[in-house]
Specification:
With about 750 residues, this protein is of the alpha/beta class. The chain folds into 5 domains: about 100 residues, no CATH class; about 150 residues, 3-Layer(aba) Sandwich (Rossmann fold); about 100 residues, Sandwich (Immunoglobulin-like); about 240 residues, Class I glutamine amidotransferase (GATase) domain (Rossmann fold, 3-Layer(aba) Sandwich), CATH 3.40.50; about 100 residues, Sandwich (Immunoglobulin-like), CATH 2.60.40.1930. The protein is about 25% helix and about 30% strand. The protein contains 16 helices and 37 strands. The strands form 9 sheets. The protein has an 8-stranded mixed sheet. It has a 6-stranded mixed sheet with strand order 7-6-3-8-9-36. A 5-stranded mixed sheet has the order 11-17-16-13-14, with no helix packed on it. Strand 8, helix 6 and strand 9 form a beta-alpha-beta unit. Helix 6 packs parallel to helix 15. The chain is elongated. About 0% of the residues have low confidence.
Length: about 750
């Protein structure tokens, strides 16, 4: 470039480019180009009669003339530049997660990485002459570390390779990313797949040199690598859990996997391991709604370095698909008919209804196979697992004695203890009149049987109790209607099963107004994990049939039974004490937090409610209380409970709420405190992940015990311009000479052709 700027020092400029120096605005430049194109196009009309060779020559000269005029108008210049390229950057990422503290045959993974860095310090010094090396320690995020600390940290609780590579690509400092040097064991805790690794590496735009560990560097360990399950399931429907197992350095041909719920073994399977990996599939049916805790475990081996990853727990939210109801009636009646039709109208109810039309004492002269009526399927309905598939079991004016069912009553009791709901409706074949005193069913009923008055057919109007005025079951009036006024306006009932009082932990919602002791008409009870309800009359149908005849709508009957059904199945919308955990699974060392909300009788937030909370370990059959906390709810009825320093395990957070000395209700929520750190759940090296990152990016995977290859760094695109100098070429004598030559030659050619 010396001939363009002979007065400049040698080497002063090392680049040049052609630029336009015109001062015309953009619209004028566009108009000029369009005008020249139109002029050249219109000029073709005047030379159309010439032979094609001469016509082509004239048009070529005119086009060149137009181009040269445009060049002069745009005022071109040569810009001399002194430029230098910005050095590219190389991100050196060193894994600082806790899995890097695990042992290898040559020390911990972190120590092996440090020795590799020291052995190849000379190569990195030479690399620093071509690029800017940016050292970083990473876990879930990157942390600049220049120089790298000694010893290398291993305190990061997780690893997110995708996020780390994203952060590296965003951090520019005015420099292009030329390469990534990645020291890691590849144990990504965010579930990075091979395909996702390849996609990310291909988008990075720079080669990745991944330096990692082989499978032989793994310490002996057996781990539940992953549990695949949905976040929710439907009650009484099959749930599938898949468990992925992996072992290194133990040479196990098979291993036993156990599934537990609340400490009780549900299933156990023997899994064959091939190439150190295996899979087990468990299928089961949840029997109650709500959050359920399940634990999967494998035996701890003697030589394992990490035993906390031999068990994994999960919380499964079980919701209701349809409410399965079994209704058994001793004989057809108006009460049975009205209740059955109400349940059949409800689209959310799956009803199985049996009412007895003949018994074993009836005369039967025809063969069994010729009868249209089937025998009562006692064994099929009242033994596990069939009875456990129902949400609610109803005995309506039904006595077990004619069907030799005494031995089956224990299944009803166990069904309730395990979380089922049982409702007994009155009649002359029910309660004490049905021979239920001193049976297993009498243990779970909310009323006490034995020595009470016989069936009473006298009419009566039930009286609402203090508990009944606040309970959702007996809120059957219109909005704003006083509860007592509702029951005074309903038709009288006729027919009543007496009792000798309430069982412990029971509540009477309606009572008989005149019999001795005012025995309960409607009573409820929490029994172990289940619920029971007693309606000691068979005439609630009058609330609909007679009420409609008297000009009413009869909606009180529907509301009562719908409310009762929702209470029996523990509909969350009816609970006045509600509990919600911040997280169902927390890591060891993190606080266990829950939010409690207490509602008043109007289902608005209740301020000043006294809440007692306790943390109960489920592994000890729910008897070991670890911590307790008390609080009072705020203006909106809410409060937050936090338990700190909770040991690893599975717990229930149980709360009870009171207000003005009266019990409001209780709630429970399961919480798992994971003993295993997320980095230790599957601590095996992942060379396959690192190899996928390297190959897809155009880099290489390097074993940490091998030598460093020559690294190719992507050239920088950015340049810095130190100085410039413009030399105009439009106002020189050669430019005007070319213009005159083109114009003169075009004129001469037209004259020779006879156009002038």
């Amino acid at each position: 470039m010396r001939w363009l700027a002979p007065d400049a020092a040698a080497g002063a400029y090392n680049d040049w480019r052609l630029v336009a120096t015109t001062t015309l605005p953009g619209w004028a430049q566009v108009a000029l180009v369009i005008g020249l194109l139109l002029a050249v196009g219109v000029s073709t009309l005047g030379v159309w009669r010439l032979p094609w060779r001469k016509r082509a020559a004239v048009m070529t000269l005119r086009a060149l003339l137009g181009i040269w005029v445009a060049v002069l108008v745009f005022r071109p210049a040569i810009e001399l530049r002194a430029v230098s390229r910005v050095r590219t950057r190389v991100a050196m990422l060193v894994d600082g997660s806790r899995s890097m503290s695990l042992a290898t045959p040559d020390g911990t993974r972190s120590q092996v990485v440090r020795r590799h860095l020291q052995r190849h310090q000379a190569e990195y010094d030479r690399l620093a002459e071509r690029a800017v090396i940016e050292p970083m320690v990473f876990g879930v995020r990157t942390h600049p570390a220049d120089p790298l600390p000694e010893p290398l940290p291993t305190d990061k609780p997780g690893t997110d390779l995708l996020r780390v590579l994203n952060e590296v690509s965003w951090q520019s400092s005015g420099r292009d990313l030329g390469a990534v040097i990645l020291y890691s064991d590849g144990t990504d805790t965010e579930g990075l797949t091979i395909d996702a690794a390849r996609r990310k590496a291909a988008q990075l735009g720079a080669p990745i040199y991944a330096i990692g560990f082989s499978d032989e560097d793994s310490a002996p360990d057996l781990a539940i690598r992953r549990v695949i399950a949905d976040d929710f399931a439907f009650v009484h429907n099959t749930v599938t859990l898949q468990v992925l197992l992996e072992e290194k350095g133990l040479d196990l041909p098979e291993v036993s996997v156990t599934l537990k719920q609340d400490g009780q073994v549900l299933q156990s399977k023997l899994v064959q391991l091939e190439d150190g990996q295996g899979q087990a599939t468990f299928e089961f049916k949840p029997r109650r709604i709500g959050k359920q805790v399940y634990e999967l475990s494998v035996p701890v081996q003697a030589t394992e370095v990490v035993d906390s990853n031999n068990a994994r727990s999960l919380v499964l939210k079980v919701i209701r698909d349809r409410i399965r109801v079994l209704q058994v009636a001793g004989r057809p009646s108006w009460d049975e008919r009205f209740l059955r039709e109400l349940l059949k109208r409800n689209p959310n109810v799956d009803l199985i209804s049996f009412f007895i039309l003949r018994s074993t004492t009836d005369l039967q002269k025809a063969p069994q196979e010729e009868l249209a009526l089937i025998p009562f399927p006692v064994n099929e309905l009242f033994t596990s697992p069939e009875i456990d598939t129902f949400d609610v079991v109803i005995y309506q004016n039904f006595s077990f004695k004619p069907y030799r069912m005494r031995r089956y009553l224990r299944y009803i009791r166990d069904y309730v203890y395990n979380g089922g709901s049982f409702l007994m409706v009155g009649g002359d074949l029910s309660f004490e009149d049905g021979a239920y005193p001193r049976t297993e069913v009498s243990e779970i009923l909310p009323i006490r049987l034995g020595g009470s008055l016989p069936w009473d057919e006298a009419p009566f109007r039930p009286r609402l109790t203090a508990q009944g005025r606040r309970h959702p079951i007996t809120r059957i009036g219109a909005a704003g209607e006083p509860p007592n006024a509702v029951y005074r306006s309903l038709p009288q009932l006729a027919g009543f099963n007496s009792s000798v009082g309430l069982m412990p932990d029971s509540q009477a919602l309606l009572r008989h107004p005149s019999l001795p002791g005012n025995p309960p008409v409607v009573a409820i009870r929490e029994v172990a994990r289940g619920r029971t309800m007693a309606v000691t009359t068979d005439s609630l149908w009058k609330w609909r049939f007679t009420a409609v005849g008297d000009g009413g709508a009869g909606r009180e009957f529907d509301r009562f039974w719908n409310n009762a059904l929702r209470w029996l199945i523990r509909d969350p919308d009816l609970s006045r004490v509600r509990l919600s955990a911040n997280r169902s699974v927390v890591l060891l060392g993190e606080p266990v937090g829950v939010e409690v909300r207490v509602l008043g009788p109007d289902y608005q937030g209740l301020a000043g409610a006294e809440v007692q909370a306790r943390l109960v370990r489920l592994e000890d059959a729910g008897t070991a209380v670890i911590k307790t906390e008390d609080l009072s709810t705020g203006a909106d009825g809410r409060g937050v409970i936090v338990f700190d320093e909770v040991p690893a395990g599975t717990y229930n957070v149980e709360v009870r709420a009171r207000h003005d000395g009266e019990s409001i209700g209780r709630a429970a929520e399961p919480v798992i405190v994971e003993a295993s750190e997320v980095e230790m759940q599957a601590p095996f090296p992942r060379p396959d992940v690192l190899r996928a990152l390297a190959e897809a990016s155009g880099g290489r995977f390097i074993d940490v015990g091998s030598s460093m290859p020559d690294m190719e760094i992507k050239d920088a695109r950015r340049v810095e311009v130190d100085r410039t100098r413009r030399i105009t070429i439009w106002d020189t004598w050669p430019a005007f000479l070319i213009l005159l030559a083109l114009a003169g030659l075009e004129w001469w050619l037209r004259r020779r052709s006879g156009l002038l």
